[in-house]
């Protein structure tokens, strides 16, 4: 299929008076006409012209294939524009289309046509395809961490489709291009729904209708969810599961051994000694004396579930475990299940739940949208893995890296990237109070603003790699005068910040970016370039700084604490401008 700008312009010109909408709407019109051989009069009724479309730009039902197609169109080569469309579908669109409890009289007319089509053909719809159509590469869209996360959130809404048609209906989410075909679809993904036993349940309503159900759940129920769903069960958690060598996991393992293998402890005591777990779910429905939980996600408690799974696997042949059926039935933990909650609300719950455990503040930011977008940025620009989740990279095999399109076996780490951004901005004060970046929302948004996504990734890598050579660079300067530069260890962060500015002000920056900014290797040539920059330029800036009238008296007293301040960086850049014509440049655009 080859839709052109000229064809879109012509359709827009012909129909804008009668149909309205914007130019992009007419890409969808032409796509439906050509893909399904529709006449224009029919295609017009299946396209959304204008707003209030809840994330759906068009639809089509194929009675022969028994497929219902829902579309989102972007006349663009970038898949980034689909983020908002996905979110609209997740937040309200799927419920509006398949399970609306009320009506929106301002909804786009196309949605009425869609509902009429479903009503007429509800008995013969076997599959629902949600297709995101654009002119870019669908394979790259499939690899996007942002879209992958949103795609799974959208797939979690499958229970609404099943409820609408009164039976299981296949949901397939695809990225497609009329020019480059389609990406990998995942047909046949079923709704994950599990029967669970909850003892002594209580319910509590949230501020916007959120529902929290509290009870005691069997470890076997949690383990069954994990066994079938795998890592998807943990996708809302803030870090990958820790190895069983960690102290907490060793303690859990010992407790399970005493209960299940040795019979030394009563299983009823396990819940008393455990903090409990929290789940988010699409739905929780009472069925007699038990419950059915739909699309559960573990918000905290990953260590408990993985340790229990490892324990069962390691002791699969143990006679004590084979005879422990009744004991396992009584092995429970307190569980909170959150339903009817928005994505943002679930994120807040996840963060606050994990604040109560020994988790670093940067771990709590691992699933922020900006972190997912940075993951995509480094993947798309350089093929470098961004480790936003603690210890996630070490768990990937060579094959998994290759399949995901990563070309390197080193990763950019969240904490090191944060320090790089601070150094590049001359935020020496914040480098000394690193935790505050993640604990103060205002500072975090400054460091990880949307403008970072517009920075040249090669420039980021050039500055990022400096930290791995700081010791060598400090020593290289000290070798020029051991007494004169004895303060260098206390000026490491300032040195890093000034080297970033030296890099960004280099007259041959683009050449250096091509040479050294494409990967994380620390070549001899890169180190030599940094060493030359440190000893022939930054060294003299620091010498002038120590001699500056604002700091000379402190330096004479051996007090070099000023080297760890933003003010020192600003004064050093004044000196660098005088000496080398450097100006402050940042890793953004």
Spatial sequence of strands, sheet with the most strands: 1-2-3-4-5
Count of distinct structural domains: 3
Any low-confidence stretches, pLDDT <50, length ≥5?
none
Query: From the helix content, strand content and strand pairing, which structural class follows?
Result: alpha/beta
| Main β sheet profile | 5 strands, mixed
The beta-strand count equals 15
Mean pLDDT: 89
The gross shape turns out to be globular
**Ends distance:** 36 Å
Radius of gyration: 29 Å
Helix percentage: 40-55%
> Roughly what fraction of the amino acids lie in strands?
5-15%
Count the DSSP helices.
27
Key descriptive features of the protein:
single chain, alpha/beta, 3 domains, five-stranded mixed sheet, 47% helix, globular
Helices and strands in order, then pairings?
Elements: H1 5-19, H2 23-36, H3 40-44, E1 58-62, E2 67-73, H4 82-98, H5 109-121, E3 127-133, H6 138-143, H7 145-155, H8 158-165, E4 170-177, E5 181-182, E6 193-196, E7 198-205, E8 211-218, H9 219-229, H10 247-261, E9 277-280, E10 283-287, E11 290-294, E12 297-300, H11 302-314, H12 319-322, H13 325-329, E13 332-339, H14 343-354, H15 369-382, E14 385-387, H16 398-403, E15 411-413, H17 414-425, H18 428-431, H19 435-439, H20 441-447, H21 457-464, H22 470-478, H23 492-504, H24 509-516, H25 524-547, H26 552-556, H27 566-580
Parallel strand pairs: 2-3, 3-4, 9-13, 14-15
Antiparallel strand pairs: 1-2, 4-5, 6-11, 7-8, 8-13, 9-12, 10-11
